[in-house]
Prior knowledge:
Layout: E1 4-9, H1 27-37, E2 42-46, H2 55-67, E3 75-80, H3 82-91, H4 103-106, E4 109-115, H5 124-127, H6 133-150, H7 155-166, H8 176-194, H9 198-213, H10 217-220, H11 223-232, E5 240-247, H12 253-258, H13 263-278, H14 292-302, E6 324-330, H15 361-377
Parallel strand pairs: 1-2, 1-3, 3-4, 4-5, 5-6
Helix pairs in contact: 1-15, 2-3, 6-8, 7-8, 7-13
Amino acid sequence: xxxxxxxxxxxxxxxxxxxxxxxxxxxxxxxxxxxxxxxxxxxxxxxxxxxxxxxxxxxxxxxxxxxxxxxxxxxxxxxxxxxxxxxxxxxxxxxxxxxxxxxxxxxxxxxxxxxxxxxxxxxxxxxxxxxxxxxxxxxxxxxxxxxxxxxxxxxxxxxxxxxxxxxxxxxxxxxxxxxxxxxxxxxxxxxxxxxxxxxxxxxxxxxxxxxxxxxxxxxxxxxxxxxxxxxxxxxxxxxxxxxxxxxxxxxxxxxxxxxxxxxxxxxxxxxxxxxxxxxxxxxxxxxxxxxxxxxxxxxxxxxxxxxxxxxxxxxxxxxxxxxxxxxxxxxxxxxxxxxxxxxxxxxxxxxxxxxxxxxxxxxxxxxxxxxxxxxxxxxxxxxxx
Length: 385
Protein backbone atom coordinates (compact mmCIF):
# COMPACT_ATOMS: atom_id res chain seq x y z
CA UNK A 1 0.00 0.00 0.00
CA UNK A 2 1.18 3.53 -0.77
CA UNK A 3 2.45 5.73 2.02
CA UNK A 4 -0.24 7.98 3.44
CA UNK A 5 1.05 11.51 4.04
CA UNK A 6 -0.85 13.10 6.89
CA UNK A 7 -0.38 16.85 7.36
CA UNK A 8 -1.36 18.36 10.73
CA UNK A 9 -2.24 22.06 10.57
CA UNK A 10 -2.47 24.05 13.82
CA UNK A 11 -4.86 26.83 14.67
CA UNK A 12 -3.82 30.33 15.66
CA UNK A 13 -1.58 28.86 18.35
CA UNK A 14 0.55 27.47 15.51
CA UNK A 15 3.66 29.21 16.82
CA UNK A 16 4.15 26.43 19.35
CA UNK A 17 5.79 24.32 16.69
CA UNK A 18 9.10 26.09 17.23
CA UNK A 19 11.87 24.27 19.11
CA UNK A 20 10.79 21.26 21.17
CA UNK A 21 7.20 22.44 21.65
CA UNK A 22 4.35 20.35 20.28
CA UNK A 23 0.94 21.73 19.36
CA UNK A 24 -0.70 18.38 18.62
CA UNK A 25 0.28 16.82 21.95
CA UNK A 26 0.56 13.01 21.60
CA UNK A 27 -1.43 13.05 18.33
CA UNK A 28 1.46 12.04 16.09
CA UNK A 29 2.41 9.06 18.25
CA UNK A 30 -1.17 7.84 18.49
CA UNK A 31 -1.77 8.11 14.75
CA UNK A 32 1.47 6.34 13.86
CA UNK A 33 0.59 3.52 16.26
CA UNK A 34 -2.92 3.24 14.85
CA UNK A 35 -1.72 3.09 11.24
CA UNK A 36 0.88 0.44 12.13
CA UNK A 37 -1.82 -1.63 13.84
CA UNK A 38 -3.85 -1.50 10.62
CA UNK A 39 -0.88 -2.50 8.47
CA UNK A 40 -0.51 0.85 6.74
CA UNK A 41 2.50 3.08 6.25
CA UNK A 42 2.03 6.71 7.30
CA UNK A 43 4.23 9.77 7.53
CA UNK A 44 2.93 12.56 9.75
CA UNK A 45 4.01 16.09 8.91
CA UNK A 46 3.41 19.27 10.93
CA UNK A 47 3.01 22.75 9.48
CA UNK A 48 4.77 25.74 11.00
CA UNK A 49 2.24 28.45 10.28
CA UNK A 50 2.43 32.16 11.01
CA UNK A 51 0.49 32.44 14.29
CA UNK A 52 -1.92 35.30 13.58
CA UNK A 53 -1.32 35.99 9.89
CA UNK A 54 -4.14 36.06 7.36
CA UNK A 55 -5.85 32.90 6.16
CA UNK A 56 -4.24 33.48 2.77
CA UNK A 57 -0.73 33.52 4.28
CA UNK A 58 -1.48 30.47 6.43
CA UNK A 59 -2.80 28.63 3.37
CA UNK A 60 0.46 29.44 1.56
CA UNK A 61 2.34 27.92 4.50
CA UNK A 62 0.31 24.73 4.09
CA UNK A 63 0.76 24.75 0.30
CA UNK A 64 4.53 25.00 0.74
CA UNK A 65 4.59 21.94 3.02
CA UNK A 66 2.53 19.86 0.57
CA UNK A 67 4.81 20.97 -2.27
CA UNK A 68 7.88 19.24 -0.80
CA UNK A 69 6.25 16.00 0.31
CA UNK A 70 7.45 12.76 -1.34
CA UNK A 71 5.25 11.74 -4.26
CA UNK A 72 4.86 8.13 -3.09
CA UNK A 73 1.30 8.42 -1.83
CA UNK A 74 -1.78 10.57 -1.27
CA UNK A 75 -2.00 13.53 1.07
CA UNK A 76 -4.54 13.95 3.86
CA UNK A 77 -4.86 17.26 5.71
CA UNK A 78 -6.10 17.48 9.29
CA UNK A 79 -6.60 21.03 10.59
CA UNK A 80 -7.43 22.03 14.13
CA UNK A 81 -9.42 25.23 14.63
CA UNK A 82 -8.27 27.75 12.01
CA UNK A 83 -6.15 25.01 10.42
CA UNK A 84 -9.34 23.52 8.98
CA UNK A 85 -10.02 26.77 7.13
CA UNK A 86 -6.46 26.78 5.80
CA UNK A 87 -7.05 23.29 4.39
CA UNK A 88 -10.34 24.25 2.77
CA UNK A 89 -8.74 27.31 1.19
CA UNK A 90 -5.80 25.38 -0.28
CA UNK A 91 -8.08 22.74 -1.82
CA UNK A 92 -10.64 25.19 -3.23
CA UNK A 93 -10.47 24.93 -7.06
CA UNK A 94 -8.95 28.00 -8.73
CA UNK A 95 -7.91 29.67 -5.48
CA UNK A 96 -5.39 32.51 -5.78
CA UNK A 97 -2.90 32.44 -2.89
CA UNK A 98 -0.47 34.84 -4.50
CA UNK A 99 2.96 33.86 -5.89
CA UNK A 100 3.48 30.13 -6.44
CA UNK A 101 1.53 27.24 -7.90
CA UNK A 102 -1.38 25.75 -6.00
CA UNK A 103 -3.32 23.44 -8.31
CA UNK A 104 -0.66 20.74 -8.79
CA UNK A 105 -0.15 20.41 -5.06
CA UNK A 106 -3.84 20.63 -4.11
CA UNK A 107 -4.60 17.84 -6.58
CA UNK A 108 -2.66 15.42 -4.34
CA UNK A 109 -5.00 15.95 -1.40
CA UNK A 110 -7.41 13.08 -0.88
CA UNK A 111 -9.19 14.18 2.30
CA UNK A 112 -9.62 17.24 4.53
CA UNK A 113 -10.61 16.72 8.16
CA UNK A 114 -11.40 19.71 10.35
CA UNK A 115 -11.26 19.54 14.15
CA UNK A 116 -13.32 22.14 16.05
CA UNK A 117 -12.97 24.54 13.12
CA UNK A 118 -15.01 27.78 13.00
CA UNK A 119 -16.44 27.15 9.53
CA UNK A 120 -19.07 29.83 10.12
CA UNK A 121 -16.91 31.92 12.42
CA UNK A 122 -16.93 32.54 16.15
CA UNK A 123 -18.38 35.56 17.97
CA UNK A 124 -15.33 35.32 20.25
CA UNK A 125 -13.23 36.73 17.40
CA UNK A 126 -15.04 40.05 17.68
CA UNK A 127 -14.02 40.32 21.34
CA UNK A 128 -10.40 39.50 20.46
CA UNK A 129 -10.16 42.11 17.72
CA UNK A 130 -10.36 45.24 19.85
CA UNK A 131 -8.32 47.17 22.41
CA UNK A 132 -8.71 44.45 25.05
CA UNK A 133 -8.59 41.50 22.69
CA UNK A 134 -5.19 42.06 21.08
CA UNK A 135 -3.13 42.17 24.32
CA UNK A 136 -5.29 39.34 25.65
CA UNK A 137 -4.52 37.18 22.62
CA UNK A 138 -0.81 37.91 22.88
CA UNK A 139 -0.82 37.16 26.63
CA UNK A 140 -2.66 33.87 26.18
CA UNK A 141 -0.32 32.91 23.34
CA UNK A 142 2.75 33.47 25.54
CA UNK A 143 1.17 31.61 28.45
CA UNK A 144 0.44 28.70 26.11
CA UNK A 145 4.13 28.42 25.21
CA UNK A 146 5.00 28.43 28.92
CA UNK A 147 2.35 25.77 29.51
CA UNK A 148 3.72 23.47 26.82
CA UNK A 149 7.21 23.74 28.26
CA UNK A 150 6.24 22.84 31.81
CA UNK A 151 2.72 21.41 31.83
CA UNK A 152 1.41 24.47 33.69
CA UNK A 153 1.35 28.22 33.44
CA UNK A 154 2.99 30.09 36.35
CA UNK A 155 0.15 30.24 38.88
CA UNK A 156 0.59 33.94 39.68
CA UNK A 157 0.18 34.85 36.00
CA UNK A 158 -2.89 32.61 35.60
CA UNK A 159 -4.48 34.12 38.70
CA UNK A 160 -3.86 37.67 37.48
CA UNK A 161 -5.39 36.83 34.09
CA UNK A 162 -8.51 35.42 35.75
CA UNK A 163 -8.77 38.44 38.03
CA UNK A 164 -8.57 40.85 35.11
CA UNK A 165 -11.20 39.08 33.00
CA UNK A 166 -13.65 37.83 35.60
CA UNK A 167 -13.13 40.33 38.38
CA UNK A 168 -12.86 43.53 36.40
CA UNK A 169 -14.60 45.34 39.25
CA UNK A 170 -11.50 44.80 41.39
CA UNK A 171 -9.63 47.28 39.18
CA UNK A 172 -11.91 50.32 39.21
CA UNK A 173 -9.21 52.91 38.53
CA UNK A 174 -7.22 51.10 35.85
CA UNK A 175 -8.45 50.38 32.30
CA UNK A 176 -8.52 46.66 31.61
CA UNK A 177 -6.42 46.97 28.45
CA UNK A 178 -3.64 48.66 30.45
CA UNK A 179 -3.62 45.82 32.97
CA UNK A 180 -3.53 43.29 30.13
CA UNK A 181 -0.61 45.07 28.51
CA UNK A 182 1.28 44.87 31.80
CA UNK A 183 0.44 41.20 32.14
CA UNK A 184 1.55 40.60 28.54
CA UNK A 185 4.91 42.20 29.27
CA UNK A 186 5.39 40.14 32.43
CA UNK A 187 4.48 36.92 30.61
CA UNK A 188 6.93 37.75 27.81
CA UNK A 189 9.68 38.40 30.35
CA UNK A 190 8.94 35.08 32.05
CA UNK A 191 9.14 33.27 28.70
CA UNK A 192 12.41 34.97 27.79
CA UNK A 193 13.96 34.04 31.14
CA UNK A 194 12.81 30.47 30.58
CA UNK A 195 14.84 30.14 27.38
CA UNK A 196 17.96 28.07 27.87
CA UNK A 197 19.77 28.91 24.61
CA UNK A 198 20.29 31.86 22.32
CA UNK A 199 18.39 30.03 19.56
CA UNK A 200 15.37 29.74 21.82
CA UNK A 201 15.56 33.44 22.69
CA UNK A 202 15.67 34.30 18.98
CA UNK A 203 12.64 32.07 18.37
CA UNK A 204 10.74 33.89 21.10
CA UNK A 205 11.75 37.27 19.61
CA UNK A 206 10.51 36.17 16.16
CA UNK A 207 7.27 34.92 17.67
CA UNK A 208 6.64 38.20 19.49
CA UNK A 209 7.38 40.14 16.31
CA UNK A 210 4.85 38.07 14.37
CA UNK A 211 2.19 38.58 17.03
CA UNK A 212 2.61 42.34 16.80
CA UNK A 213 3.11 42.85 13.07
CA UNK A 214 0.77 40.25 11.51
CA UNK A 215 -2.50 40.44 13.51
CA UNK A 216 -4.68 39.85 10.45
CA UNK A 217 -6.27 36.51 11.35
CA UNK A 218 -8.69 37.35 14.15
CA UNK A 219 -10.99 39.71 12.15
CA UNK A 220 -11.16 37.02 9.45
CA UNK A 221 -12.66 34.59 11.99
CA UNK A 222 -15.67 36.76 12.72
CA UNK A 223 -18.96 35.26 11.45
CA UNK A 224 -19.43 38.09 8.96
CA UNK A 225 -16.02 37.40 7.41
CA UNK A 226 -16.58 33.63 7.28
CA UNK A 227 -19.89 34.25 5.52
CA UNK A 228 -17.89 35.81 2.68
CA UNK A 229 -15.26 33.03 2.92
CA UNK A 230 -17.93 30.37 2.43
CA UNK A 231 -19.41 32.25 -0.52
CA UNK A 232 -16.08 32.06 -2.37
CA UNK A 233 -14.55 28.76 -1.25
CA UNK A 234 -15.81 25.53 -2.82
CA UNK A 235 -15.08 21.85 -2.34
CA UNK A 236 -12.67 20.11 -4.66
CA UNK A 237 -14.11 17.12 -6.56
CA UNK A 238 -12.54 13.88 -5.32
CA UNK A 239 -11.61 15.33 -1.92
CA UNK A 240 -13.51 13.99 1.08
CA UNK A 241 -14.45 16.52 3.74
CA UNK A 242 -15.16 15.48 7.31
CA UNK A 243 -15.32 17.17 10.69
CA UNK A 244 -14.82 16.55 14.39
CA UNK A 245 -17.28 18.52 16.52
CA UNK A 246 -17.18 19.18 20.27
CA UNK A 247 -18.85 21.00 23.09
CA UNK A 248 -17.91 21.34 26.75
CA UNK A 249 -20.15 21.75 29.80
CA UNK A 250 -21.20 25.35 30.35
CA UNK A 251 -18.94 26.82 33.06
CA UNK A 252 -20.65 28.77 35.84
CA UNK A 253 -20.38 29.49 39.55
CA UNK A 254 -21.46 25.96 40.42
CA UNK A 255 -18.85 24.38 38.17
CA UNK A 256 -16.25 26.77 39.58
CA UNK A 257 -16.97 25.40 43.06
CA UNK A 258 -16.62 21.83 41.77
CA UNK A 259 -13.18 22.41 40.23
CA UNK A 260 -10.59 20.13 41.81
CA UNK A 261 -6.99 21.19 42.24
CA UNK A 262 -5.37 24.40 43.33
CA UNK A 263 -5.31 28.07 42.35
CA UNK A 264 -4.13 27.32 38.81
CA UNK A 265 -7.13 25.10 38.00
CA UNK A 266 -9.56 27.63 39.48
CA UNK A 267 -7.93 30.49 37.56
CA UNK A 268 -8.09 28.72 34.19
CA UNK A 269 -11.71 27.68 34.80
CA UNK A 270 -12.55 31.32 35.43
CA UNK A 271 -10.79 32.19 32.17
CA UNK A 272 -12.90 29.53 30.41
CA UNK A 273 -16.05 31.22 31.72
CA UNK A 274 -14.97 34.46 30.05
CA UNK A 275 -14.27 32.67 26.76
CA UNK A 276 -17.42 30.53 26.83
CA UNK A 277 -19.78 33.45 27.31
CA UNK A 278 -18.29 35.26 24.33
CA UNK A 279 -18.09 32.32 21.92
CA UNK A 280 -21.86 32.29 21.25
CA UNK A 281 -24.50 32.69 20.11
CA UNK A 282 -23.96 32.34 16.39
CA UNK A 283 -26.50 34.46 14.55
CA UNK A 284 -29.19 32.48 12.68
CA UNK A 285 -28.13 34.48 9.61
CA UNK A 286 -24.92 32.41 9.44
CA UNK A 287 -26.29 29.01 10.45
CA UNK A 288 -26.40 26.21 7.85
CA UNK A 289 -29.01 23.47 8.43
CA UNK A 290 -27.59 20.09 9.42
CA UNK A 291 -28.08 17.18 7.04
CA UNK A 292 -29.40 13.77 8.08
CA UNK A 293 -25.97 12.24 8.77
CA UNK A 294 -24.87 15.23 10.85
CA UNK A 295 -28.06 15.24 12.90
CA UNK A 296 -27.82 11.50 13.49
CA UNK A 297 -24.19 11.65 14.63
CA UNK A 298 -24.84 14.40 17.18
CA UNK A 299 -28.05 12.85 18.48
CA UNK A 300 -26.31 9.49 18.90
CA UNK A 301 -23.56 11.08 21.00
CA UNK A 302 -25.47 13.75 22.95
CA UNK A 303 -29.09 12.67 22.73
CA UNK A 304 -30.03 15.98 21.10
CA UNK A 305 -28.77 18.56 18.65
CA UNK A 306 -26.53 21.34 19.99
CA UNK A 307 -28.22 24.53 21.12
CA UNK A 308 -27.28 28.03 20.03
CA UNK A 309 -25.32 28.43 23.28
CA UNK A 310 -23.23 25.24 22.98
CA UNK A 311 -19.53 25.69 22.25
CA UNK A 312 -16.14 24.24 23.13
CA UNK A 313 -14.94 27.36 24.91
CA UNK A 314 -13.88 29.09 21.71
CA UNK A 315 -16.01 27.97 18.75
CA UNK A 316 -19.80 27.47 18.57
CA UNK A 317 -20.56 23.78 18.12
CA UNK A 318 -22.87 24.52 15.19
CA UNK A 319 -20.02 26.35 13.46
CA UNK A 320 -17.78 23.28 13.60
CA UNK A 321 -19.95 21.12 11.34
CA UNK A 322 -18.69 20.67 7.79
CA UNK A 323 -19.04 17.61 5.58
CA UNK A 324 -19.52 14.22 7.19
CA UNK A 325 -19.21 14.22 10.99
CA UNK A 326 -16.55 11.66 11.89
CA UNK A 327 -16.60 12.01 15.67
CA UNK A 328 -18.61 13.87 18.30
CA UNK A 329 -16.88 14.74 21.58
CA UNK A 330 -17.69 16.27 24.92
CA UNK A 331 -14.47 18.23 25.20
CA UNK A 332 -13.03 21.71 25.19
CA UNK A 333 -11.18 23.30 22.29
CA UNK A 334 -7.73 22.09 23.41
CA UNK A 335 -8.72 18.69 24.86
CA UNK A 336 -9.13 17.32 21.35
CA UNK A 337 -5.45 17.89 20.45
CA UNK A 338 -4.13 16.29 23.63
CA UNK A 339 -4.03 19.18 26.10
CA UNK A 340 -6.19 17.34 28.60
CA UNK A 341 -5.99 16.23 32.21
CA UNK A 342 -4.48 12.75 32.38
CA UNK A 343 -1.42 12.88 34.66
CA UNK A 344 -1.19 9.09 35.01
CA UNK A 345 -0.80 8.39 31.29
CA UNK A 346 2.76 7.83 30.06
CA UNK A 347 3.72 10.38 28.88
CA UNK A 348 1.43 12.56 30.97
CA UNK A 349 -1.23 14.73 29.34
CA UNK A 350 -1.46 18.25 30.74
CA UNK A 351 -4.57 20.43 30.74
CA UNK A 352 -4.07 24.08 29.76
CA UNK A 353 -7.64 25.08 30.65
CA UNK A 354 -9.62 23.33 33.37
CA UNK A 355 -13.03 22.83 31.76
CA UNK A 356 -14.33 19.81 33.68
CA UNK A 357 -15.25 18.16 30.38
CA UNK A 358 -14.25 14.68 31.57
CA UNK A 359 -12.42 14.13 28.29
CA UNK A 360 -9.56 11.74 29.12
CA UNK A 361 -7.02 9.62 27.27
CA UNK A 362 -9.57 6.94 26.26
CA UNK A 363 -11.77 9.60 24.67
CA UNK A 364 -8.74 11.17 23.01
CA UNK A 365 -7.63 7.82 21.58
CA UNK A 366 -11.14 7.05 20.30
CA UNK A 367 -11.32 10.40 18.51
CA UNK A 368 -8.02 9.97 16.70
CA UNK A 369 -8.77 6.32 15.86
CA UNK A 370 -11.83 7.59 14.00
CA UNK A 371 -9.63 10.10 12.17
CA UNK A 372 -7.22 7.31 11.16
CA UNK A 373 -10.11 5.12 10.03
CA UNK A 374 -11.55 7.88 7.86
CA UNK A 375 -8.17 8.53 6.24
CA UNK A 376 -7.64 4.86 5.43
CA UNK A 377 -11.16 4.59 4.06
CA UNK A 378 -10.33 7.37 1.63
CA UNK A 379 -6.84 6.24 0.69
CA UNK A 380 -7.81 4.15 -2.30
CA UNK A 381 -10.00 6.51 -4.28
CA UNK A 382 -13.15 8.60 -4.10
CA UNK A 383 -15.73 7.21 -1.71
CA UNK A 384 -17.89 8.78 0.95
CA UNK A 385 -16.08 9.34 4.28
